[in-house]
Amino acid sequence: MSKKSAPKDKDLQGEGNYDATRRYDQSAHEFAKSGQVEERARAARPASPEEADAMRRAEQEGKSHSKGEDAAPREQPKR
């Protein structure tokens, strides 16, 4: 049997792209501390009762494909 050589593409990192995950986590953390969360949440509210209903239907559709919640709570990584 021959050994497979390591991928030459630095973005291919086995189970995931750890660099991209690290950048996303850093960006999300910075946004959370930016003070813009409440403002953006208000801006994302539905503009009409019809839009609110469409959002509820979309949520239910998404949940209908779910296998359910994990029984055990997940521990957050320490920073």
Give an overview in words.
- The chain is an all-alpha fold.
- The chain has a domain at 18-64.
- It has 3 helices and no strands.
- It has helices at residues 18-33, 37-43, 49-64.
- The radius of gyration is 20 Å and the shape is extended.
- The model has no long low-confidence stretch (mean pLDDT 83).
Percent of residues in helices comes to 40-55%
Q: Please state the average pLDDT score.
A: 83
Count of distinct strands = 0
The tally of helices reads: 3
What is the 3D form? extended
How would you sum up the major sheet?
none
Percent range for β-strand residues:
under 5%
Which residue ranges are poorly predicted, with pLDDT under 50 across at least 5 consecutive positions?
A: none
Note the run of SSEs as H and E.
HHH
Determine the structural class based on helices, strands and strand pairing. mainly alpha
Radius of gyration: 20 Å
Between the first and last Cα atoms, what is the distance in angstroms?
43 Å
